[in-house]
Amino acid sequence: MRRVAIVALLSVLVSSCVGRPEADATGEEIYLQLCSNCHGAQLEGGVGPALGPGTNAAEQPDEYLQVTIVEGRGRMPSFSSSLTNDQVGHLIDYLRETQAG
Ligand code: HEC
Asked: Minimal CA–CA distance to 46: which of 54, 35, 33, 57?
């Protein structure tokens, strides 16, 4: 039992060091961990543009959000090495829910 706990603790430490969200993190948790520094906790924008209701991002198709997250855009870095496809999907769902108000 003790060994299992140590392995679990280590995997939490490792994942937080490389900035990878937990496998079961929600879209909101992923957003707050990886995106809110630049786009604001309420999607209001900052270093990066606002992403909430009425913004360009809200008008764009899902593929645009997906390509932006996976490949990066302009000064925004790529997140291909820190997110699984499922996590990118959760993130897009979270953006869509928040954009809907
Ligand atoms: C280091 C800062 C930074 C981080 C972290 C970041 N972004 Fe960005 N993001 C930007 C910048 C800057 C742009 C504008 C890029 C351009 O058009 O030149 C941008 C653009 C975007 C766009 C396109 C907006 C538009 O109107 O065209 C989306 C969508 C987006 N980011 C989503 C995300 C998501 C989701 C995350 C988290 C996985 C994230 N960003 C993390 C800086 C960041």
From this structure: 35
